Amino acid sequence: MSESARYFLHQHPVFKDTTKRPKVTRNKKMVRRKTYEDSIYFLWWCFLRESDAYKKCCQSGGQGTLNKLFLDFGDVHATDFENWWKTIDRGANLFSEPTNSAAWAVDSSSDLGSVDFSRSLVVVIPIMRSHKTMLSGVARLLRSRLLKERGRSSEGSGAKNKRVLKRINLVRELRARSLAKYRIHGEYKIESLRLALRVFQQCRTGGFPMWKIGDRVGVLVRSKSDTKTEEGRRLLTQTTWRYKRDAKKIIENVEKGVFPSRK
Length: 263
Description:
The chain is mostly helical. It contains ten helices and two strands; from the N terminus they run E-E-H-H-H-H-H-H-H-H-H-H. It has a two-stranded antiparallel sheet with strand order 1-2. A hairpin with a 5-residue loop joins strand 1 (23-24) and strand 2 (30-31). The relative contact order is 0.12. Residues 153-157 have low confidence and may be disordered.
């Protein structure tokens, strides 16, 4: 099955020509094209590669306490990310939703016997209506159902910020219902994860004070890194230590098949 036919709740890796010129938005701003490195699944792979315990497991051919994880993720050190993701359709098998979780049509009342009503919403759609009307109707019903289950009213004043909040909550609810073999845990910011990873990797090499490592990888304090004053270096040191602490916790959890948890 092609990757485009699989459904991911988060942006899946995009393996395309990265030499193309940046996109130009409607307001004529230049925007960098997204690559596989912008995917949360790429960072999952990167953090797993930083695990010393998993590296030993890979070197021993999958022996040890991380054997079950190895059976799913394989040797993440043996090749690059693209080959790892595409081999035996590994990425899709690990992170996409089950193929039977897609929407499907019910042709008769007898088909309802196979519906899991705890995870499904049965909707009757008059097919003579316009495509736009049908889609907006389904979206409204789905939003109402999910908000109702969370004990919240679907009614609002129509203010833009409330509509945005509802949309955010809807996305969170859908992600919490993920049936993927390995699902993303909690909220995340790609750039924060990148910084934590860079800090951890730089700390491995050693030879630099913590503030210097933070300055080198792009850690910012109060919108900029002031390394010319003692106070600036102190704040940068503290912030960089937090990134390192977060990275260590993320690696501990990724060994358990949980990402990107800092708990």
